[in-house]
Amino acid sequence: MDIARAARINCRMPSPEKEVATIEPWAAGIGLATLVLVASVAVFTAWDRAHTASLEEVAMPTAVGDLQCVQEPKGTKGPIGLKYQGKELDAVSEKKHQDARMIRIGSDDGGVYSIYRLEEEKESKNERLFMKGAENEFFEVRTE
User: Fewest CB atoms less than 10 Å from the CB: which of 13, 97, 121, 130?
Assistant: First the structure.
């Protein structure tokens, strides 16, 4: 009888294949949540890399780092051969100002050279215009 009883016990025990095939519901939930999290990070990373240029645009309103310098006319006065808002620019005088004090307000009609004003003159009605001749050297220009 011991052999018959042992045979019945073995019949009731689950086989090792059934144990491997079953999974607890909470473990399946954790696995699914992890999969969703990793997929969402991958999608966001791909979107971020595709839009990097528009997201990281930097605007420098000062003259610091501006490499476009205009040749100043001989005698520090006279036309410089550029137009701003459809009017010819004439050099008036040379001044030495720090690049950080000059604020970019626009560019010549060709879009090559920048036009600046002093930071302190932003509220002034008689705003003076400047163009960069060299590092920390600007000359005043007027539209005629």
Answer: 13
